[in-house]
Amino acid sequence: MVWVKRTLAVVIVLFAGLILNANAQNSNKAYAATGAGWQWPASTDGIAYIPVCWENPAGFAKEEAQVSGKIIATWQAVANINFYGWQQCTAASKGIRILIVDNRSNSGIGRFMDGDKNGMELNFTFKNFSPSCQADNRRMSCITSVAVHEFGHALGLMHEQDRADSTCKNEAHKTGGLLLTAYDPDSVMNYCNPRWNNDGILSKLDVEGIQKLYGARKTVTPGRITITDELNIPAGQRAENIIMQFGSNLVRRDFAVNTNTPVAKQFYTFNGPGKYCYKLWSNTLYADNKYYEGYGEGCWTLEAGKNYAVSVRFKKGTRGKAFDIVLQ
Questions:
Q1: CATH assignment, 223-327
Q2: Which of 4, 117, 156, 302 has its CA 20 to 30 A from that of 220?
Q3: Sheet order of strands, 323-327 included
Q4: pLDDT tier for residue 38 given thresholds of 50, 70 and 90
Q5: Three-class SS of residue 14?
Q6: Contact of 32 with 177, CB cutoff 8 Å
């Protein structure tokens, strides 16, 4: 089974809906208390954007992709939560920081783990802990089902068997509190579930519980923005690199054009109507063999489900840059 990250004393929430203050589970203590600040906050669009990064990603690209895909298909698919980033951590990284290590997987609780180095630990090899998961037909399902459980903790959820009305005796540390759902023997957070972590599948009450905390995910038709950057060869451009960030979670796209590949396209999808902002940086090589920098920013009011097409254009620079970048 998986453990809650040690050495934390934080406000947390059971899938039953219990708000409490808990020490490390391996200390066999859980102290009931009320408090605030455990929940990842919602942005202006009602979605909680939570950055995720890997402390030591080298050599595990397939496993990391499976984990991110599974989390997006479970927690993110049913509630107003967006996990983003999934790149290598830096010293300043915030959000959920995952260490890949061969021990019993564990996680911090809710927003209190924001930016904590090694705040979550996931096992990808199982050579030391739970070696039965090494089998080719089990390893990936072990990785993803455990990840679903640990990301439940990262969202602020504790073990279902810890509820005061639980009949489970498997590593249970009974507590009391405000319940959001009926007791759930099928929860991914329940150690007494005969299907280990419910095979990584959220139960009906798992979905109900997380939606009560973060809101139900609305089904919307996504819109799309296509951005085109074309090298201006007649003006003397020989090569160009552009970085663009878009939206409240600053999703990045890169453009690279040169005389052999003079046109580059990138796109973003967006959900729902509203105001969406962007930033762009450019570095362009001209025929005089000098590089010139550009910068641009702006916002659009977009309609749900619509497709937009824009092109990169340069104007006379301000802010110490050779060019102002505009999207038309």
A1: 2.60.40
A2: 156
A3: 251-258, 237-246, 274-286, 291-302, 323-327, 307-316, 223-230, 263-270
A4: confident
A5: strand
A6: yes
The CA distance from 294 to 197, in Å, is 50
What would the pLDDT profile of 166-200 be if each residue is shown by its tens digit?
Answer: 887 776 566 655 577 898 999 999 988 889 899 99
Q: pLDDT band at 21, cuts 50/70/90?
A: very low
Residue 134 CA to residue 121 CA, distance in Å, equals 18
pLDDT digits (tens, 9 = 90+) for 105-124: 999 989 999 999 999 999 99
Distance between CA atoms of residues 70 and 14, nearest Å: 21
pLDDT at res. 168 = 79
User: CB under 8 Å to 68, separation ≥6 — which residues?
Assistant: 52, 83, 86
The 10 Å Cβ neighbour count of residue 108 is 26
Q: Spell out the domain ranges in the chain.
A: 3-214, 223-327
pLDDT mean over 153-173: 81
- DSSP designation for 102: S
Q: What strands, in cross-sheet order, belong to the sheet with 81-88?
A: 3-4, 106-107, 120-122, 96-100, 48-54, 81-88
Residue 97 or 320, more confident = 97
Neighbours of 93 (CB within 10 A): 18
Closest among 182, 135, 138 to 15, alpha carbons compared: 182
Residue 30 has a pLDDT of 26
The CATH code belonging to domain 3-214 is 3.40.390.10
Cα gap 131→123, rounded to integer Å: 11
- Is this model's pTM higher than 0.70 or not? no
pLDDT of residue 222: 81
CB 71 within 8 A of CB 147: yes
CA pair distance 104, 128, nearest whole angstrom:
9
The amino acid that residue 112 corresponds to is: F
For the record, the structure tokens of 29 come out as 């203590």
pLDDT at residue 137 greater than cutoff 90: no
